[in-house]
Amino acid sequence: MTDKRDEFLQKVLAGDFRAVARLVTLVENRSSESAPFLRELFPHTGRAFTVGLTGSPGAGKSTLVDRLAQSYRAQGRKVGIVAVDPTSPFSGGAILGDRIRMQSRSLDPGTFIRSMATRGHFGGLTRTASDVLAVLDAAGFDPVFVETVGVGQGEVEVARTADATIVLLVPGMGDDIQALKAGIMEIADIFVINKSDHPGAEKVETELRALISMSTRPDGWNPLIVRTVASEGIGIDEFVSAIEEYRRFAARSEVRKNERVRIQKERLLELACMQAREELLRDNAAADRIEELARLIAERRLDPFTAAEEVLELHRKNFQ
Amino acid sequence: MTDKRDEFLQKVLAGDFRAVARLVTLVENRSSESAPFLRELFPHTGRAFTVGLTGSPGAGKSTLVDRLAQSYRAQGRKVGIVAVDPTSPFSGGAILGDRIRMQSRSLDPGTFIRSMATRGHFGGLTRTASDVLAVLDAAGFDPVFVETVGVGQGEVEVARTADATIVLLVPGMGDDIQALKAGIMEIADIFVINKSDHPGAEKVETELRALISMSTRPDGWNPLIVRTVASEGIGIDEFVSAIEEYRRFAARSEVRKNERVRIQKERLLELACMQAREELLRDNAAADRIEELARLIAERRLDPFTAAEEVLELHRKNFQ
User: Fold this and answer.
1) Does A89 contact B156 at a Cβ distance shorter than 8 Å?
2) Residue of A153, A160, A259, A314 for testing the chain B interface, max B β-carbons within 10 Å
3) Do the chains contact at B307 and A273, CB–CB below 8 Å?
4) How do residues A16-42 score in pLDDT, each as one tens digit?
5) Is the distance from CB of A268 to CB of B304 less than 8 angstroms?
6) What integer pLDDT is reported at residue A20 of this predicted model?
7) How far apart are CA B304 and CA B297, in angstroms?
8) CB pairs under 8 A, 24+ apart, for A9-15?
9) Rounded to an integer, what distance in angstroms lies between the CA atom of residue A307 and that of residue A312?
10) Which residues in chain A have their CB less than 8 angstroms from residue B217's CB?
């Protein structure tokens, strides 16, 4: 690592805003430049507590995260916020409105905010998001919040990348509670009923309590329920207490520790695949052959299993 | 392939219900037994038109697919239906209610129905779903419908696996249309406004038309809008016509053809990774070392990039 690069790295570690922003951009663009930095930063990670928040659009996630950030800032903590947007698979664009709103939140220099689009191939988001979290972690931001929209598998996976998962509900969700049952019900460490001054808050809480009482988590944690009115700052202290309570629990939990090893194993295998893939596609002859194999498969002239064996063979031959 | 296996394969190709059901189960369980069958079936695929339907819970997807299936059955076609359920990441269970409802739809022997859970690691669902589609395709089911819940990235990816993507809306969605804008707006080939006898159907259609008019698709297709009342069978003929119109368009489209090659390339690289991964984890020494590497990473004693290089090295050494 050159002196200049090392200087940049030291700036990131010191939490220098511009340096952090620049490295996060490199990571987001999956620039190969970012890898050596991530490698160097890695030993400095593992200190931040990352909190994933998920919920339907309009449930008030951004407002809630704003309030949480303010509360942690008041304690003198540096706070990171990563907002994951659903993306147009064609254009790769993110929600403009959100980006504009994000800007207005970024006036405080102790709060780092970044909006990320879910572009790129399946699984890429989890990788990118967790690399961005690693940068913020190493740069001394703690806690780091990850907002995601929706309850799809992708969002669930991003939420699981975080140390704590918070599911945001609002009164009057109707069918959505049904979907929760089977979906993210069991990954929520804390449920937040926002807009709890609206009619129906009681009903949502009752239903949630019933669902929670029916299931037992392997780690023994009983998900907490917090009621908030984020727009008026109501319930934020209780929410922060709930997060801290879970943080203390997770630090002691053996089940959580094993889960972290399991997640690292998944991610390691994914990373190895991604590295092999990049090596292959950087090689022109190999890339051409892979394109040709894909065409043969699309035309049903070759089955994907035979083609995959050839891809593995290509990798072995080229990268001894 | 033994005689017995070949006999089984011939049954699947002939559309034998029990044989198809058994192979689909093998595929769903990711049994290694299924690979040789998938390989043999592959040349017989590519004939079915697969239609992905996505939308919020309660929008009426199942009823709509039922009606579509009836309509295609009346034309003498064999219809496949694959319902993808959100899953509890802990228990791996699927929505019981849906499964029960699915059963009641399976009385007609010309309709093959399977409910799939989204268990397993990220990306696995797309793989499994597309393998199940391949089995149904080879077995002569056409069209094959894929129902998914929600608008998360995972669901989007499953929908894209299909030849046509249909997004289901209902009047009074409010915020959801906003999410659509950036999310799956541009992957929808056909929009269906179900429950269109409810107030607000006009408003949803007007908003949709405005959104469609603002965007241009690279393939030149103008997404169709169909209004239905699935529970009363209203609009189903128009819906079927819209699907067939898009089918004719897609068959001619060069952009779609390139897109199919691109999808096959992604899937080929994924499959190669998955094969390498399985080879590695079957080897006890390699599997132990990977577990150890994951633990070292979780304890921040080793960075994931160095570990990934060792994983690739392990693969090269063990599987020359």
Assistant:
1) yes
2) A153
3) no
4) 989 999 999 999 887 778 889 999 999
5) yes
6) 94
7) 6
8) A9/A37, A9/A40, A9/A41, A12/A37, A12/A41, A12/A135, A12/A138, A12/A139, A13/A41, A13/A44, A13/A138, A13/A139, A13/A140, A14/A139, A14/A140, A15/A78, A15/A139, A15/A140, A15/A141
9) 9
10) 90
Nearest-angstrom CA–CA distance, B31 and B52: 25
Full set of structural domains in chain B with CATH? 45-255 (3.40.50.300), 265-318 (no CATH)
Interhelix angle for A34-41 vs A17-28, to 10°?
120
Distance of residue B253 Cα from the nearest chain A Cα, in angstroms: 14
β partners of residue A167: A54, A191
Helix (H) or strand (E) holding B245: helix B236-252
pLDDT in tens, A270-279: 889 988 988 8
Measured CA to CA in angstroms, residue B105 lies from A265, B97, B111 at distances of 41, 13, 8
- Angle of the B175-182 helix axis to the B201-214 helix axis, nearest 10: 20
User: Interface pTM (ipTM) of the complex?
Assistant: 0.79
- Give the minimum alpha-carbon distance from B154 to chain A in angstroms, rounded to a whole number: 5
* Nearest chain B CA: its distance from A67 CA (Å): 22
Question: Out of A124-128, B67-71, B241-245, which region has the weakest mean confidence (pLDDT)?
Answer: A124-128
CB hemisphere CA count around A56 (13 angstroms): 24
Chain A environment of B157 (Cβ under 8 Å): 122, 154
Q: Give B307's contacts in chain A (Cβ within 8 Å).
A: 268, 271
Q: Return the residue matching tokens 């570690």.
A: A13
Give pLDDT tens digits for A166-213.
988 888 765 555 555 555 666 789 999 999 999 889 988 988 898 888
